[in-house]
Design goal:
There is one protein chain. With 273 residues, the protein is an alpha/beta fold. It contains 8 helices and 9 strands. It has one domain: Ribokinase (UDP-N-acetylmuramoyl-L-alanine:D-glutamate ligase, 3-Layer(aba) Sandwich), CATH 3.40.1190.20. 36% of the residues lie in helices and 18% in strands. Strand 8 and strand 9 form a beta hairpin. Helix 1 crosses helix 7 and helix 7 runs antiparallel to helix 8. The chain starts with 11 loop residues before the first strand and ends in a 16-residue tail after the last helix. Bound molecules: pyridoxal-5'-phosphate.
Length: 273
């Protein structure tokens, strides 16, 4: 990302997500990514997690009305070039976000593109989304997504499609696309046996493969958030979806290549450039 010239208003991006006290994922990852991409980042906080490199010990979800008010307030004054959702915690928050997005023209076919990262659990398996909230994401949020970015665990939870090899990615993309997002990016990072990491983009008509190396690092905390935030950054600058996704893939490859150990567990992807 190129930093804006002094005194010039940059593009703006909004993350609707949870806080990670460890600083590696959630809104902390999103803000670092927005900064690195030269975009002014804004936050609608959904939940506060108590988290370190070993996992999520506890979290508190904020009142849905407060989440919606954050979205409406920044949209009215600052303007939102692109938005992304991460941890949404509860069904009531999902529905509040959907309503606030409708009021602020955020979502597919509206003026502001929306990236939905359907976060269900941390990489350590800690739930970040209540069970009834998964249905709300699937049935009501995904239909207003410009782009959905599920990993293979989330594909299985949302559609029942279980992908175990690269061959299954197209079926996964079709199944998620049928839930309503305009575009789907299936993240292949969890196919650990594959020597490459070939993500798949689908708009209901054409498949685009996004190849990349597999580094083998265990330190990928915040990787999903960072990818979605870098894509949202490019969208906020007016990039079409395929170019924004290619930008995001390049960004996350660098972030994973620079990932570092921190704490006794899983370190974060890098935001140092
Ligand atoms: N904590 C928060 C607040 C998040 O939003 C996320 C992912 O979206 C995570 C933790 C999980 O990150 P990871 O699975 O990379 O550990």
């Amino acid at each position: 990302g190129v930093p804006p010239a002094p005194g010039v208003t940059p593009s703006t991006a909004l993350t609707i997500a949870g806080s990670d006290s460890g600083g590696g994922a959630g809104i902390q990852a999103d803000l670092k990514t927005f900064l690195a991409c030269g975009v002014h980042g804004m936050t609608a906080l959904t939940a506060v997690t108590v988290q370190d490199s070993l996992g999520v010990a506890d979290f508190l979800a904020l009142p849905p009305s407060l989440v919606a008010a954050q979205i409406r307030t920044v949209a009215a004054d600052l303007g939102v070039g692109a938005a992304k959702t991460g941890m949404l915690a509860s069904a009531a928050i999902v529905d509040a976000v959907i309503e606030a997005c409708a009021q602020t023209s955020i979502g597919a076919g509206r003026s502001t593109p929306l990236v939905v990262d359907p976060v269900a659990a941390s990489m350590h398996g800690d739930s970040l989304l209540a069970e009834d909230a998964l249905a709300a994401v699937r049935d009501r949020l995904l239909p207003i997504a410009t782009l959905a970015t599920p990993n293979l665990d989330e594909v299985r939870l949302l559609t029942g499609v279980d992908v175990t090899s690269r061959d299954g990615l197209r079926k996964a993309a079709e199944a998620v696309h049928a839930l309503g997002p305009s575009w789907v990016l299936i993240k292949a990072g969890h196919l650990a046996a594959d020597p490459e990491c070939v993500d798949l983009l689908f708009d209901g008509a054409d498949f685009v493969e996004l190849p990349g190396p597999r580094t083998g690092t265990p330190h990928t905390h915040g990787g999903g958030d960072t990818l979605a935030a870098s894509i949202a950054s490019a969208l906020s600058r007016g990039c079409p979806v395929p170019e924004a996704v290619r930008f995001g893939k390049r960004y996350i490859m660098r972030a994973v290549a620079g990932a570092y150990p921190l704490g006794a567990g899983t370190g974060p992807v890098s935001a140092f450039w």
